[in-house]
TrEMBL record:
The chain crosses the membrane at residues 341-362. Residues 13-268 form the Protein kinase domain. SMART domains: S_TKc. This is non-specific serine/threonine protein kinase.
Length: 532
């Protein structure tokens, strides 16, 4: 008989079973002993991060998401720290993540436009409040019949930053197949960055795979930077012309040229109805609606929000899901789509440990299409337990116009045990993630990855001496790149720390060449040779 977990977190949340895992984070189905409802609890091992600020930053991002009340965004109920465990309590969503749906094949075009419209509505609400997701991809979109929900706003990025441990704004966060050119270069991240990823998401829904793929994450990043994506209408001729033009604009290399989320939602709504909405030229970085600020920790019987701009209001209405509710305290409410700016957290720390989620998400795809981006998300694959959440709004709350009979049976929730999307493979390593995330030219990252691959190949064959030699070659190469000004010395030192941590203390001293280095590996005492 399977052993049932009895962990009681914060004296309130009884963790019943694990439903997803990745890196330092794990998602549990849990029971809220105070309110008597089933919830999802995401826990993060703070001890593994070696980052004293991680708990506070996760709490900040969770509170930001909780205040960002919108039917297309997962509801956050609570957050806190219990010992070395940070936790975020969320609604347990029925359905499957979009990555799992797309593994069965591309969506019918009308269904892809419908899902895209709702995702754009959720992004419009977030961007109007100044929140950037930074990891928009199929694995972070949950589909359950007519309901479409975006999860992990800001939270995944904080975890990845803490795991990557790189300095200041140079950290590269995201998934290679959905990463904007400016993001892959370690540049500034904005709402326009989300919109590029959203364009990739639309392509994946319609064709079964994102616009750029490859055998190595660096190859994918290079293609984002240099290549022109194929026109969606050429891949699927039945795609409406407006939607085709929208995707072309979303995938512009220049962030300022990409449409805003509210405009994208409007275009997709027009394409679905057979009309012509026309892609607006408003940049994605410019919010189109005011924000309703919800005080964190209060019970939210929501007042009427200020009237939003037409585009954002339409996007929010289009994104409304069936039977969804939101509360920061415990009260059942419907959720208007607004809140204040909370900027992305910035990591200012030396590299300590890398989150395995980053390593996995940036490694080459292990299967066709969007499957490679799947990651743990808050979801439940059966509707049988829906009654376990007494604070949910009644099912009749869903808009009556959002149930066309012809829409995507692939999103129907099968009557199976609650599951989450695929978890990272066990063979990922933090050194690869660090190199991919370096704020350096693609050529630099590619060169270092080639050297590291040789280390891994020798390690797989149990060639200990060759492992040491190749590792030293990698660090020597990093020294040379730093001397040439192509690699930040702090990142070079971080790489050395991570290589030694991964291979084990003392491995580098086995270097047969006797070269050593200035980090105390085989050459630090040369000046004392011959004494006494």
């Amino acid at each position: 008989m399977m052993e049932v977990m009895t962990v009681l977190l914060a004296g309130r949340y009884r963790l019943e079973r694990s439903i997803g895992r990745g890196g330092m984070a794990e998602v549990h189905q849990a029971h809220d002993a105070v309110l008597g409802r089933t919830v999802a609890v995401k826990t993060v091992d703070l001890a593994a991060a070696h980052d004293p600020t991680l708990g506070e930053r996760l709490r900040r991002e969770a509170r930001a998401t909780a205040a960002l009340a919108h039917p297309g965004i997962v509801t956050v109920y609570d957050t806190g720290v219990d010992g070395d465990t940070a936790y975020i309590v969320m609604e347990l969503l029925p359905g499957r993540d979009l990555a799992a749906v797309l593994r069965e094949g591309p969506l019918p075009v009308p269904e892809a436009l419908r899902v895209g419209e709702k995702v754009a509505g959720a992004l419009a609400a977030a961007h109007a409040a100044g929140i950037v997701h930074r990891d928009v991809k199929p694995g972070n979109v949950i589909v359950d019949g007519e309901s479409v929900t975006v999860v992990d706003f800001g939270i995944a990025a904080v975890e990845q930053e803490a795991g990557a441990g790189l300095t200041a704004t140079g950290t590269t966060i995201g998934t290679a197949e959905y990463m904007a050119p400016e993001q892959s270069n370690g540049g500034a991240v904005s709402a326009a960055t989300d919109m590029y990823a959203f364009g990739c998401l639309l392509v994946a829904m319609v064709t079964g795979r994102p616009p750029f793929t490859g055998g190595h994450p660096v190859e994918v990043l290079r293609r984002h930077l240099e290549e022109v994506p194929p026109r969606l209408g050429e891949l699927r001729p039945e795609v409406p012309a407006d939607a085709d033009a929208l995707v072309e604009a979303l995938l512009a290399k220049d962030p300022a040229s990409r449409p805003a989320a509210a405009d994208a939602a409007r275009v997709l709504a027009g394409a679905r109805s057979g009309g012509s909405a026309g892609a607006a030229a408003a940049p994605a970085g410019a919010p189109t609606a005011p924000t309703t600020v919800l005080a964190a920790g209060t019970t939210r019987a929501m007042p009427t929000a200020a009237a939003a701009a037409a585009g954002a209001a339409a996007a929010g209405a289009a994104a409304a899901g069936a039977g969804r509710s939101g509360s920061a305290g415990a009260t059942t409410v419907r959720r208007p789509a607004e809140r204040r700016w909370v900027g992305p957290a910035v990591v200012v720390a030396a590299v300590l440990l890398l989150l395995a989620v980053v390593a996995w998400s940036l490694r080459p795809p292990t299967g066709p299409g969007p499957e490679a981006d799947a990651r743990p998300t808050v979801q439940e694959q059966t509707t049988e337990g829906a009654g376990a959440e007494p604070t949910d709004a009644p099912a009749t709350d869903a808009p009556a116009t959002e149930a066309p009979a012809t829409e995507a049976p692939a999103t129907e929730a099968p009557a199976t045990e609650p599951t989450v999307s695929a978890t990272p493979p066990a063979d990922t390593d933090p050194v690869t993630a660090l190199i991919v995330a370096l704020p350096a030219d693609v050529d630099v990252r590619e060169t270092l990855l080639e050297d590291w691959d040789e280390v891994l190949a020798a390690r797989e064959k149990d060639q200990e001496q060759k492992v040491a030699d190749k590792a030293q070659d990698l660090l020597t190469r990093a020294d040379e790149l730093a001397d040439e000004g192509r690699l930040d010395p702090a990142d070079r030192d971080a790489l050395a720390v991570e290589v030694e941590a991964f291979l084990g203390a003392g491995v580098l001293e086995q270097d047969s060449s006797g070269r050593g280095n200035d980090r105390g590996n085989g050459g630090g005492d040369d000046e004392n040779d011959g004494d006494d």
